[in-house]
């Protein structure tokens, strides 16, 4: 069996990569240089792909900076120190317009070329920042679209399945699952606004959710194990 795994270099995608490998998929990892404000996550993705022994790791260039509209792709401030309870109350400025739709569309194209029926993505609807393209109804809708959008799907030669194994897990449960599968979270990167040396800010939504997850899992984040 073959599968494409969307690999951002973050905690969630690292766990999904391990889940796909544990299910005996030959993994083709797909990452995106989309104009995000920092490149460290792509370095993390490359390290994770190498450590996991994927068949191929493809990094694709897309310049979403041309559209802006997000603190991750434009000169906008990343929100800091927001109360965790408020993260899903409104869609934050770190939302990148249509990002998962763009990513899944390109994964779908590669899947058709490689004759792959399975795509894995690390979206989550429990501990997340309120992004609309991280919900189960979005994944179900894209899967229906995929069956209509490709020659392989229309001809019946491909029945695409989008796997979102983290959808109903909180961050602590995700971390615990990854530890069971041997994920080295010291290779991952989560921060939206790292300093020039790549160190996490510890205050953005992603850093706060990550920190809460490790605390609730009763574990020390390996990124800070030597402090």
Architecture in CATH? 3-Layer(aba) Sandwich
> Regarding CATH, which class?
Alpha Beta
Q: Mean of residue pLDDT?
A: 91
* Estimated structural class: alpha/beta
The third-level CATH topology is Rossmann fold
Listing every helix as H and every strand as E from the N terminus to the C terminus, the arrangement reads EHEHEHEHHEHH
- Main β-sheet, spatial strand arrangement: 3-2-1-4-5
Q: What is the global morphology?
A: globular
Discrete helix count: 7
Q: Span from first to last CA?
A: 42 Å
Which features does this protein show?
227 residues; alpha/beta; Rossmann fold; 7 helices; 5 strands; globular
Task: Give structural notes.
The protein has 227 residues and is an alpha/beta fold. It has a single domain, classed as HUPs (Rossmann fold, 3-Layer(aba) Sandwich), CATH 3.40.50.620. Helices cover 36% and strands 11% of the residues. The protein is built from 7 helices and 5 strands. The chain has helices spanning 11-22, 40-52, 99-114, 136-149, 151-155, 171-180, 205-216, and strands spanning 2-6, 26-33, 56-61, 118-120, 161-163. Strands 3-2-1-4-5 form a 5-stranded parallel β-sheet, sandwiched between helices. Helix 1 (11-22) packs across helix 6. The chain is globular and about 50 Å long. The model has no long low-confidence stretch (mean pLDDT 91).
């Amino acid at each position: 069996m073959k599968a494409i795994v969307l690999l951002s270099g973050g905690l969630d995608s690292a766990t999904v990569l391990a889940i796909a490998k544990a299910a005996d998929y030959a993994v083709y990892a797909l990452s995106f240089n989309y104009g995000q404000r920092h490149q460290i996550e792509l370095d993390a993705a490359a390290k994770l792909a190498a450590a996991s022994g994927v068949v191929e790791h493809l990094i694709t260039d897309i310049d979403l900076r041309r559209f802006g509209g997000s603190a991750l792709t434009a000169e906008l401030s990343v929100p800091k120190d927001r109360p965790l309870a408020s993260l899903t109350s409104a869609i934050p400025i770190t939302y990148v317009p249509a990002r998962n739709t763009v990513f899944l569309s390109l994964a779908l194209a590669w899947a058709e070329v490689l004759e792959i029926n399975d795509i894995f993505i690390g979206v989550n609807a429990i501990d997340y920042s309120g992004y609309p393209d991280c919900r189960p109804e979005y994944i179900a809708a894209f899967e229906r679209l995929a069956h209509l959008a490709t020659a392989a799907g229309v001809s019946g030669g491909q029945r695409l399945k989008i796997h979102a194994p983290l959808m109903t897990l909180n961050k602590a449960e995700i971390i615990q699952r990854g530890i069971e599968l041997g994920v080295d979270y010291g290779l991952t990167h989560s921060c939206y606004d790292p300093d020039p040396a790549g160190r996490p800010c510890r205050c953005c939504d992603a850093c706060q959710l990550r920190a809460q997850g490790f605390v609730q899992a009763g574990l020390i984040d390996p990124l800070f194990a030597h402090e």
